[in-house]
Design brief:
10 strands, alpha+beta, 59% strand, two-stranded antiparallel sheet
C-alpha cells in the first residue's frame, strides 16, 4: 500500500512539474551580431587616444587608427531570468608614434634644416576578444528581457605586427602576441521585440544595448568601456 502511495505521489509531482514547465515556456537560445565592438574600435578608443596622446606637429598618421570590428554572441537561457552569455569577435587597429631630432639653426637662431625623424614605430594589430558569463535579468515578468547585470570573465588576444626604426638607424620587424585577461561586470537592456504579439512565435528578433562594462584587466589595470554592446539578433 505504501509503495502505491509513493508511486502516486511521484506521478503527481511529475505531472505538476510538467504543467509548470509548459506554463513557463520560453525561447532558450539567442544569436546576435554585436556592433559595440565596431563602435569601440572606430569611435571610443580613437577619441580617447587623441585626447591623451595628441599627435605631434608633422606626425605621419594618428597615434591610434581604428579599423572595423565585429562580435558574435550566444545566449542559453537555462532559467527564465538567467542566461549563459558567450561572445567571440575581432577588431583591428594601427598604432603610430615617433620622435624627431632637433632642427639645425644658424647663429641667429633661424632654422636652416628641418628636424629628421630619429625613431618611429608602426604597428598593425588584430585583437580577438572572447568572454563568458551569466546574465541576471531584473523585471516583473518571468522572462529573459529588460534590465540585466552580467558578471563575466574574458580574454583578448592581441596579434601585433610592428616595424620600428631604432636609434642605430636599423629597422626591426617583429610579430608578438599579448594576452589580456579580465574580470568585469556589464549592465544593459535586452529588448524582446514583438514579445506580446509574437509570444507563440518560434523565432523572434531582439536588441541588446549595454551601458557600461566595468572591471579589472590584469594587463593595463582598471577596465571601463562605455556602450560596450549594441547587438541585434534572434531568439529561438
Amino acid at each position: 500500500m505504501n509503495i502505491k502511495k509513493i508511486i502516486i505521489f511521484i506521478s503527481l509531482i511529475v505531472f505538476i512539474s510538467s504543467i509548470e514547465v509548459n506554463a513557463q515556456d520560453y525561447l532558450k537560445h539567442s544569436l546576435g551580431v554585436d556592433f559595440g565592438t565596431t563602435l569601440f574600435s572606430m569611435g571610443t578608443i580613437p577619441i580617447i587616444t587623441d585626447l591623451v596622446f595628441k599627435p605631434k606637429e608633422g606626425a605621419n598618421g594618428k597615434v591610434y587608427d581604428g579599423k572595423f570590428g565585429i562580435r558574435l554572441s550566444y545566449n542559453y537561457t537555462y532559467l527564465p531570468k538567467q542566461s549563459l552569455d558567450v561572445t567571440l569577435g575581432f577588431y583591428a587597429f594601427d598604432t603610430h608614434h615617433g620622435t624627431s631630432g632637433k632642427p639645425i639653426t644658424d647663429n641667429s637662431g633661424n632654422i636652416i634644416n628641418s628636424p629628421t625623424l630619429t625613431k618611429f614605430y608602426d604597428g598593425s594589430t588584430i585583437a580577438i576578444p572572447a568572454s563568458i558569463g551569466v546574465r541576471f535579468y531584473f523585471n516583473k515578468d518571468n522572462t529573459a528581457s529588460g534590465f540585466f547585470l552580467l558578471p563575466k570573465v574574458g580574454m583578448t588576444t592581441f596579434i601585433v605586427n610592428g616595424k620600428e626604426l631604432r636609434d642605430d638607424g636599423s629597422i626591426r620587424y617583429k610579430t608578438t602576441s599579448v594576452f589580456d585577461f579580465y574580470i568585469s561586470g556589464e549592465m544593459g537592456f535586452r529588448i524582446d521585440l514583438f514579445a506580446k504579439i509574437g509570444s507563440d512565435w518560434e523565432v523572434r528578433p531582439f536588441i541588446d544595448i549595454s551601458l557600461l562594462d566595468l572591471g579589472y584587466s590584469f594587463t593595463p589595470g582598471i577596465r571601463i568601456i562605455p556602450l560596450p554592446r549594441l547587438a541585434i539578433g534572434i531568439l529561438f
